[in-house]
Amino acid sequence: MKIILQKPVDKLGDPGDVVDVADGYARNYLVPRGLAVKAHKGAVEQVTSLRSAHDRRLSAQKSEFEALASKLIAGGPVTVKARAGEEGKLFGSVTSDQIAVAIAAQADITVDRKDIHLEEPIRSLGTHEVKVHLFHEVEPVLSVEVVAES
User: Fold this and answer.
1) Looking at domain 2-60, which of 3.40.50.2000, 3.40.50.720, 3.40.5.10, 3.90.1150.10 is its CATH number?
2) Residue 74 to residue 142: CA distance in whole angstroms
């Protein structure tokens, strides 16, 4: 069955997309929840307005998140305190949760710990680069400075 998505659906598409799905999926899930409508001649003409509204919404959100990213970067390095041995090796590692708490405390910006991407665990003192996923194509790289607790 051909349907037109009214709202974004994971692994299926964005508003305004015309997709072909199983009849039962459309009848029992997508249409009753208002996520899609059955594609017919009049509805297909509405696709352009849905697509343009969705694109305007995405561009507005992207500009908001780009401003947030510049604020994060301008705030300087994020400082995280951790227990360390004499050679600068940490007892354990710095987690994305600790980095999210430090960002919230120092920059007053809430970032979900799942959006902080560590390529490898931080297990030493010093400055490390961490990528933060805020939105589609908006991933600022932050400096995280790990210092020893006193």
Assistant:
1) 3.40.5.10
2) 10
pLDDT score at 30: 94
Residue 42 banded pLDDT, cuts 50, 70, 90: confident
Backbone angles phi, psi at 94, to 5 degrees: -85, 125
CA 143, chain centre distance (Å): 19
Q: Which residues, in sequence order, are CB contacts of 53 under 8 Å at separation 6+?
A: 15
For the segment 82-99, what is each residue's pLDDT rounded down to a tens digit? 999 888 889 989 999 999
Q: b or e along 119-144 (b: 16 or more beta carbons within 10 Å of the residue's beta carbon)?
A: eeebbebeebebebbbbeebebebeb
What is the Cα–Cα distance from 12 to 19, expressed in whole angstroms?
8
